[in-house]
Specification:
Layout: E1 16-19, H1 25-35, E2 39-44, H2 68-71, E3 75-79, H3 85-97, E4 100-103, H4 109-112, H5 117-123, E5 128-133, H6 148-154, H7 175-198, E6 203-207, H8 208-213, H9 219-226, E7 243-247, E8 253-257, H10 261-270, H11 285-290, H12 292-303, H13 308-318, E9 322-324, H14 328-333, H15 335-340, E10 343-347, E11 353-357, H16 381-389, H17 393-401
Parallel strand pairs: 1-2, 1-4, 2-3, 4-5, 5-6
Antiparallel strand pairs: 7-8, 8-9, 10-11
């Protein structure tokens, strides 16, 4: 049975979410919740919508940006002008019906609109407000604009990315935004679990710089206790060997990770040099770390004798982690991706199949799934205001005349 065949409702199908955020960090949190069944209503400015509607590569067939279909998938779109008092009042009405409100404005913006947690929770004590920002809700930098690039740098990621003889580089995605969104979704689930026990909601404060900092392993204690500043090392981690990109005969690189003692022994056997595993320079993890360049040279000498796929196949049979460096075409063609349905085809708004990454992680009993691509601007405004708040046609027409929706 595939996830699409599972008749069990998704785990969050009883959760109502208002997503007020724009761009990536807050909306990624909304994407995760929507993927697992939450009713996520994306609140967008009338006439403009989220700036993400314009970001990324455009579909050559219709000129519409493709990224929107992923980050807004499974969501509903409601247009509402939060700068108007009537729009703010409408949001307060909607928040009374919601379980979660996600916002990623600068700290203080929601309060200026009368939409802070104190105001919203007064009428809905169980409300969980998820606040995603660059630097958090307090502290001297709280009011600063915080894009992922800056927060990745301050969180420690940028300094250690790249090669030691060159300036730091950026990872090719907005990783800090996505990490903040993941932490926000995790915090949302913990807050909802706590609410189930106490009946009380709370604020989830997810900052980009701290979400990056959380991934920095032992970087801080290494400096605090040993005076060691972790530096850029390129394609490997210092003292972790062999674990690198190794050149193959056909010009491709193979990523091999064989730094564990037992795995290194299997690598040596696969290379036809079983004695290396007992050599005093390579017999232990620490020894290999001290002789990292020498062991990398030995492995590279062997990989250059084979095409990249041959290396992968040999090491797969030997139980040694190895793989090629994939691009999108490789992912779409890979039989494991296909068997796992790691990439699924979802009809776009014109009915054409659009491949995109599936929902992760996988749940065996109540999995999430991609139900539809990102909605058109305001596509669900009438349905939400009538369904959640009971507004009739006359009330909706009045809101349109006043350009509130």
């Amino acid at each position: 049975m595939t996830p699409h065949d599972n008749p069990t409702p998704p785990p969050l199908d009883d959760v109502k979410v208002l997503e007020l955020g724009q761009l990536i960090a807050g909306p990624y949190c909304g994407q995760v919740l929507a993927d697992f069944g939450a009713q996520v209503v994306k609140v967008e400015p009338p006439g403009k919508g989220d700036a993400m509607r314009q970001w990324g590569e455009a579909d050559p067939q219709d000129g519409e940006p493709l990224w929107w279909n992923v980050i807004a998938r499974n969501k509903q779109s409601l247009t509402l002008d939060l700068r108007q008092p009537r729009g703010q009042a409408l949001l307060r009405e909607l928040a009374r019906q919601a379980d979660v409100v996600i916002e990623n404005f600068r700290p203080g913006t929601m309060e200026r609109w009368g939409l802070g947690y104190e105001a919203l929770s007064r009428d809905n004590p169980g409300l969980v407000m998820v606040r995603v920002t660059g630097f958090g809700q307090d502290g001297p930098y709280a009011s600063r604009a915080g894009f992922a690039s800056v927060c990745e740098a301050m969180g420690g990621l940028r300094y250690i990315s790249g090669y030691p003889d060159r300036p730091p580089v950026r990872v090719g995605i907005s990783l800090g935004d996505t990490l903040a969104g993941v932490h926000a979704a995790l915090g949302t689930m913990m807050a909802l679990h706590q609410r189930a026990r106490s009946g009380c909601g709370q604020v989830v404060d997810s900052s980009i710089f701290e979400s990056v900092l959380a991934m920095m392993e032992s970087l801080v204690p290494e400096y605090a206790r040993a005076g060691k500043v972790r530096e850029r090392s390129g394609s490997f981690l210092p003292k972790i060997a062999p674990s690198n990109a190794y050149p193959a005969r056909d010009g491709r690189d193979v990523i091999i990770g064989a730094n564990q003692d037992t795995v290194f022994r299997r690598l040596c056997e696969a290379m036809g040099q079983p004695g290396l595993a007992d050599h005093p320079d390579y017999a232990t993890h620490r020894a290999r770390g001290e002789h990292q360049q020498a062991i990398d040279d030995l492995v590279a000498t062997w990989t250059r004798q084979h095409d990249a796929q041959q290396v992968v196949d040999i090491l797969a049979r030997a139980g040694v982690p190895a793989g090629l460096v994939y691009r999108a075409p490789d992912m779409l063609a890979d039989p494991h991706f296909q068997a796992r349905e790691a990439i699924v085809e979802v009809p776009d708004r014109h009915g054409r199949p659009l491949p995109m990454q599936n929902v992760f992680p996988r749940l065996s009993h109540s999995p999430g799934r991609v139900r539809h691509v990102g909605p058109a601007l305001g596509e669900h405004t009438e349905a939400i205001l009538s369904g959640w708040l009971g507004y009739d046609t006359a009330a909706l027409d009045a809101l349109r005349r006043d350009q509130v929706i």
